[in-house]
Amino acid sequence: KKVLYSGMQATGTLTLGNYLGALKNWVELTDEYECIYGVMDLHSLTVRQVPAEFRKNARALYALYVAAGLDPEKNCIYYQSHVSGHAELGWILDCFTYMGELNRMTQFKDKAAKHADNINAGLYTYPVLMAADILLYQADVVPVGVDQKQHLEITRDIAERFNNIYGDVFTIPEAYIGKKGAKIMSLQEPGKKMSKSDTNANATILLLDDTDTIIRKFKRAVTDSESEVRYAEEKPGISNLMDIYSAVTGKTYEEIEKEFAGKGYGDFKLAVGETVADHLKPLQERYEQLMKDKAYIESMIKQNDEKAAYYANKTLRKVQKKVGLTERI
Ligand code: TYM
């Protein structure tokens, strides 16, 4: 089987964007691939974290993966920080990455603008650590949202550069970007992607929002002065809601346009809100159950950390040898 690798930062709670752009696709792809999913806690350190909260968020993320339908007995779901190979390969790959390449990363520029008081070196080399994550496991495919596409490209560039020097060490990974939901936009500013760090709570649907909150946020979603439910570039608010509705129901834009022909935005927004809330309900219930079963989650973490380390070390030892580091005696 081919290897699938992906992960999410363990910062805050997940958004509907994380779910539709990534997690939902992961679940749909599990049977086809040998799957490895990381709780990317090292990446979260690029912004300042409150330790106790951070630890809780990382555990919640693990449980959300499982609640969404990933199976920790079949898929390897582990903590990035528990496998030291990430940091070790990250360093080696830093030495094969040019500053010019990192300077072009749009996410670095965005994040540096947002966190002007803490533009740390980790934020800058973030894509290299991400490349190490992926290459350590010899991943063939990496399902992500559109915003990670550039990071996948630099990962491929670094891997190809390394392979050109040392022979075929790394598998060159492909991004897998879903047709629907790959870029969910803010409900308040549809020109901007939905993000957990948004300061306007109404802009973002959180996976653990209750039904009333979800419906209320969709009711307040920014649209336009027309009243026709139609997918169009000049209608970013409505198009985003259609994208969400489509990703959740599997309906095409045409089918959605037909379904709401002659109805107003109010009816449409309510339908989107109810559909999303209904869809998330089972996940939320499983999540609540899981968070009560500490022993189960912990045994899964332990088992999978070991499995991940086994895969990672295989690649790491090979890389160390290729670059000429002295082998352990
Ligand atoms: P992160 O934690 O920001 O986001 C996790 C996943 O959610 C997707 N996503 C979205 N998709 C659609 N619409 C949105 N509004 C939206 N917001 C987020 C992201 O594209 C991503 O797939 N660097 C990564 C984490 C990471 C990683 C990796 C991913 C670290 N190492 C190795 C894959 C492989 C990140 O910050 O994602």
Automatic annotation (TrEMBL):
Signal peptide per UniProt: none
CDD domains: TrpRS_core
Function: Catalyzes the attachment of tryptophan to tRNA(Trp).
Domain of life: Bacteria
Protein known as: Tryptophan--tRNA ligase
Keyword set includes Metal-binding: no
InterPro entries: aa-tRNA-synth_Ic, Rossmann-like_a/b/a_fold, Trp-tRNA-ligase, Trp-tRNA-ligase_bac-type, Trp-tRNA_synthetase
Pfam families (UniProt xref): tRNA-synt_1b
Gene: trpS
Motif ('KMSKS' region): 193-197
NCBIfam families: trpS
Motif ('HIGH' region): 10-18
